[in-house]
Amino acid sequence: MLTEWSFLGFLIPPLTIPILVALGLYLILRRVFVRLGLYHWFWQPVLADIAIYALLLWSVLALTGSLPIAE
């Protein structure tokens, strides 16, 4: 069960840290894609961005054990 964190009296949702980690990884990966010209191969680069971010967020949640996966 995920619980909230208390920071200076404010309750922070438990998904805040994984979302920020995935955002950082996404920004790095996007810069690499732009530098290598890989966006040329995508029909809709915005949809590719959304899919890449969703996969990164899922990966971060799965690796930290925050994702309830049935065994």
UniProtKB/TrEMBL annotation:
Pfam family, one: DUF1656
Stretches that traverse the bilayer: 6-29, 50-70
Keywords annotated in UniProt: Cell membrane, Membrane, Transmembrane, Transmembrane helix
Listed name of the protein: DUF1656 domain-containing protein
Organism: Salinicola corii
Lineage: Bacteria, Pseudomonadati, Pseudomonadota, Gammaproteobacteria, Oceanospirillales
